[in-house]
Amino acid sequence: MASDIQKRGKKWVVELPPELLARLGWDVGDVLTAEIVDDGIKYTRTRTAHDNTMDIARDVMDGYRETLDALAKS
User: Which of 50, 8, 26, 44 lies closest to 16 in space, CA to CA?
Assistant: First the structure.
């Protein structure tokens, strides 16, 4: 599987084939870390898009705790 390096604005972008992402279980919104190894770069997923969504949901629930408690009691 080949990937191209492209420039978009001030960033360099490596596009990964959908087949590779599917095999890895990676999706849009996942956060990767990069590590330089002897023969190239090693990417590791550190956060999933689901993790990010759950963080937002927790923040909303914390911010509206009293309102949500009142709704649950009604």
Answer: 26
Question: Distance between CA atoms of 57 and 63, rounded to whole angstroms?
Answer: 10
Contact (Cβ atoms closer than 8 angstroms) between residue 43 and residue 32: yes
Shortest CA distance to 48 belongs to which of 73, 74, 71, 25?
25
- pTM score, two decimals? 0.55
- pLDDT tens, position by position, 5-61: 999 999 999 888 999 999 999 988 888 899 999 999 999 988 776 777 778 888 888
Residue positions counted in the chain? 74
Paired sense of beta strands 5-8 and 11-14, if any? antiparallel
Distance CA 61, CA 12 (A): 37
